[in-house]
Amino acid sequence: MNNLFVIIDISLLVLLLILLVSFLIKNKKNLSKDGVLYLYKTSLGIRLINNIGNKYKKTLSFLSYVSVFIGYLLMVGILYLLGSQTFQYLTNPAIVQAIRAPPIAPLIPYFPQLFGLEELFPPFYAIYFIISILIVATIHEFSHGVFAKRWGVRIKSTGFAFFRFFPAFFGAFVEQDDKQLVKKGKFKQMSILSAGVFANVLTAIFFFILLAVFFYLVFAPSGVIFNDYSYSIVPVAGITMVNNFSLSNPGANEIIPLIKNDSLNEINVGETKYLGIKDFSSDKSLVALYDDAPAINSKLSSTILQINGKKVTNVESFRNELLRYSPGEKITITTKGNEIEEKEIVLAENPLNESLPFLGVVMPASQNSNGILRRVSILLFFKNSNTYYESNIGATGEFIYYLLWWIFLINLLVGLFNMLPLGILDGGRFFYLTILGITKNEKTAKKIHSILAYIILMIFLLLMIRWTFSLF
Hints:
Strand content: 15-25%
Largest sheet: 6 strands, antiparallel
Oligomer: single chain
Structural class: alpha+beta
Low-confidence stretches: 366-379
Helix content: 40-55%
Mean pLDDT: 87
Shape: elongated
Number of domains: 2
Number of strands: 20
Radius of gyration: 28 Å
Number of helices: 15
């Protein structure tokens, strides 16, 4: 499914790029350069902005208070998140090792694959990026325009902005009269500045609800997921044999060269047999060895759909079905990896209770080695990590689900990021006007705003330096 989506996605991206380049060449007289952007100005949307801004003045006046409140909420939220995550990143080396991607990474198509974040994020196709950014930018800028018009700020133009080096990345903009804007009172300016992120929050809430409704209508639990085989922790010095090579009181450096990467490895600790190394402890004195269990011996795929033809839909039903059998019994397990397979497996004795059957799989919730990834993951809200879900409309359901998820998330992220008190963002002047209202002194307000901006930029630099050193 993913390969098919990638082929379709790249094809659509190429087609869109050709159409946009043709459009820009045809309309090059109407384009203007603004940094790395081409601006195509039109009067499209101005009439709608003016009508809403003039017609709903009382409603917009009330919403201005809500918008400013949301602006403060997002600013406090993003500063708290920046501070807390920076502290965790700088003081917890395990997080840096678990997440090898740079802490400040661009939100571009296929970034989970590019930065090794596939365990944390669902697929991010180019079409997702284009649709999400177009929705985010249009709603954000349109709201700026409506609130600006409410407070008597003239809208000079609207239009589309295209990234000069790759026009398929584009969004909308609303150009207001900045000279009129700065003459308005502090509250009016702040309501206009926060209007965009306010609209993004409302959009995020809408798509979150839509995402929930879509998920519960389209998806059903259809199996269980495990992401590791069972393993035991033993002293490295206790290993007596690796792949028929005898050892006495070995260290990790003696064991590693004996391991074959392309097959199971027979490792003995006294009379106990294991089937491979999972990981060493940080001081190399302990090692996690995979148990000689049915699951790893049969190379069982990570998604289990049925046991002896009976569906398992969650961890509880899987365990209950497995407990119907005894050690030594042969069962047929239907699994889903690259394809659906049926495997005959003879159950072993449970090491903790010989009367119970033992398959030897580890569910995500109980896998300690993945704990950090689980804590920092912002993955799927409605999906249990142990449960495999199937869409009743096939691959289309997955595609739509992730599209809705990304539209929700990007709206939320844009709302948060835009309220950072940096000059180029809405939060920059919003913060400055707040300090100006408190101090009543322009020089003091500019100085405080400048100091905070430098602190934020230094934090970004510090994070990147910390990440760079983690690579060596």
